[in-house]
């Protein structure tokens, strides 16, 4: 590991430690910062943005008890591969848009995350996928929701952005658009994993035990069992030209019904990027929509002129905690600063900077222990 | 007309006049304010919020040339009726949520607006309806998109908010939810109006003339002919208890394809309310999504501590104009201040305060002339 990646690694760890403090407290150190990431250059003393990529693979009840060492190793490998794919794009002078696309695609194709292959099942036993992408420089954005046969929903969201006058397409209409653009449609069975199917069975059983459908329960009730309430994937990147992008892809909530759409494909809620700030979220989507989380973080950066880490920390660890909304975000600003606060037990996450050294983290405690 | 409604009427007029200035200019007087609405009370000198209701029936190319006197009279009558319905709720001590629901329902049921009865047609000749509602006090929200058989989509959005754990439902799933809650589903023919059907035929003809489908055109291209690019309806209200709510309902864009969803059902884009600020938007939805217009206005009010009129004016007449996004918003804050800026030729709009005197406006010039 190069010296340059140390501060970020420490930051990931510090973040983990600080977030053990009471959740309602907006700790100023409770997020990752990559302030010292950039190698200094003798003949170019002018500061320039530190390019890099941050990813998440979902936040939720992730503990040693429900993550086997084998699975943890596979998750870490997938996160690392995703970071490497995004880094390769950025290192070659590619765009932030291409970097987040490459990074998310790896996670969509992995069965370990709730996006693409391995997505959770709806109440009716199908997979309905949502995704969104946004280009911070142009503010162009694309989103799809409720698609059932698109192998890589984020790629379709990008096509919506680049090849249509629209931002958002849903359901069969979105699939018709995919077909018209030659996108590979897969048999819905492609998304099946035994794990997720069993997750649905457990959720249905729980629901039957309660003798009432999830949809008749009050807002805020979460029909998803703890061990499956994570997995949404996302990426934010800053490229060598200083452009930001954000992307998010998800299968939503286990046992979701009635064409429910969460925050991932909602521009401003689960996904947002402007010239100064990019955010991708994961968590209990309804809360992220009501609090316009992704846009709110960027609005605080712009209008309150607070550092990114502070804006992200207040929204996740103060506003959302008070509201009862569980989850986290990854965020980057135009100076290459990184934040990845979460108020849940764990969040699959990682970062890679110019040095190309991927840094991956899952738990709080484990990282803190490892830092000693 | 009572004296109390004069300042608002003048404000509507002033707004109209000022908005004639170059669109890129963020005029500080270019919006309506209702600062003097509240009758003073001798034995209760403490200031209290001025309750009231603001509505819109869409923004766009509205001119004397394409609006016959007969139609104008009908539009004004419907807007007035909507204001009266909302006022009755508020005057009786009802909630802002109930007031915006009542006001929007009248406009959904009127064939003159692009929502409910009278919605525009999709490329495939059907009506796909979107709506959202948000309670500023609790931040609870409900939204539906792409429903085809729900007579009053806003009522369904409210049911999503109140009787499900979710915020957003789309397509057939949303209709299945409607059915499960006993919502009246209508024959899709209910939404038909000859005007809108002819609007689709003109759009299709134009598209054929161009020899390319609208969806292959670059982002920003607007497939809707000028005279049909308006009609989304919405309302914001402040009730006697000081609670704010926002609601929006629409048929979207004529000739839309592929399950396109605009800004109306996107919380933070076309619809948003918090404890301090409520916004409903109308216009070229893709821009309102990319700029998270409704949330951005409220974020400026909160984080920049600027007056509502200024926040709304900057977003509509500066940010959106520079981006090329046509449309407008209605907004209220917790002190009862009102803003209704638009950067298009006209916007169907209206306001009613405690005195119950509805004030309705459509054009810029006409209002200005009438004020002399």
Give the percentage of residues in beta strands of chain A.
15-25%
Rg for CA atoms of chain A: 19 Å
Name the poorly predicted regions of chain A. 1-11, 13-46, 217-228, 368-372
Major beta sheet, strand line-up of chain A: 4-3-2-6-5-1-12-13
User: Structural class given helices, strands, pairing of chain A?
Assistant: alpha+beta
The geometry of chain A reads as: globular
Order of helices and strands of chain A: HEHHEEHEHHEEEEEHHHEEEEH
What's the story with the biggest beta sheet of chain A?
Answer: 8 strands, mixed
β-strand number of chain A: 13
* CATH homology superfamily of chain A: (Glycosyl)asparaginase
CATH architecture of chain A: 4-Layer Sandwich
Rounded mean pLDDT of chain A is 83
Under CATH, the topology of chain A is which?
A: Glutamine Phosphoribosylpyrophosphate, subunit 1, domain 1
Biggest interface, CB < 8 A: A-B, 58 and 58 residues
The first-to-last residue Cα distance of chain A is 17 Å
Helix content of chain A: 25-40%
Instruction: Identify the CATH class of chain A.
Output: Alpha Beta
Total separate domains of chain A? 1
Say what oligomer this is.
homodimer
Number of helical runs of chain A?
10
């Amino acid at each position: 590991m190069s010296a340059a990646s140390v501060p970020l690694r420490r930051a990931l760890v510090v973040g983990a430690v600080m977030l053990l403090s009471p959740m309602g407290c907006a700790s100023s150190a409770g997020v990752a910062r990559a302030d010292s990431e950039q190698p200094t250059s003798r003949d170019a003393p002018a500061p320039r943005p530190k390019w890099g990529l941050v990813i998440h693979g979902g936040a939720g009840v992730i503990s040693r008890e429900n993550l086997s060492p084998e699975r943890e190793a596979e998750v870490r490998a997938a996160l690392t591969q995703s970071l490497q794919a995004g880094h390769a794009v950025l290192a070659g002078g590619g765009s932030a848009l291409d970097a987040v696309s490459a990074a998310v695609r790896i996670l969509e194709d992995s069965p370990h995350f709730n996006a693409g292959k391995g997505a959770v099942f709806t109440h009716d036993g199908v997979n309905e996928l949502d995704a969104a992408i946004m280009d911070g420089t142009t503010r162009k954005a694309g989103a799809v929701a409720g698609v059932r046969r698109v192998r890589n929903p984020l790629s379709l969201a990008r096509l919506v952005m680049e090849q249509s006058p629209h931002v958002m397409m849903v359901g069969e209409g979105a699939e018709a658009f995919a077909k018209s653009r030659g996108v590979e449609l897969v048999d819905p069975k492609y998304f099946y994993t035994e794990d997720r199917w069993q997750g649905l069975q457990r959720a249905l059983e729980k629901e039957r035990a309660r003798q009432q459908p999830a949809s008749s329960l009050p807002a805020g009730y979460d029909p998803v069992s703890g061990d499956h309430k994570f997995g949404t994937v996302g990426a934010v990147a800053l490229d060598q030209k200083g452009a930001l992008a954000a992307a998010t892809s998800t299968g939503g909530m286990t046992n979701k019904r009635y064409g429910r759409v969460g925050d991932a494909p909602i521009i401003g809620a689960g996904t947002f990027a402007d010239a100064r700030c990019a955010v991708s979220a994961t968590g209990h989507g309804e809360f992220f929509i009501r609090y316009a989380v992704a846009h709110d973080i960027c609005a605080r950066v712009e209008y309150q002129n607070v550092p990114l880490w502070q804006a992200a920390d207040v929204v996740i660890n103060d506003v959302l905690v008070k509201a009862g909304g569980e989850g986290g975000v990854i965020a980057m600003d135009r100076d290459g600063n990184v934040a990845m606060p979460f108020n849940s037990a764990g969040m699959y996450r990682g970062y890679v900077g110019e040095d190309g050294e991927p840094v991956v983290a899952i738990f709080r405690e484990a990282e803190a222990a490892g830092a000693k």
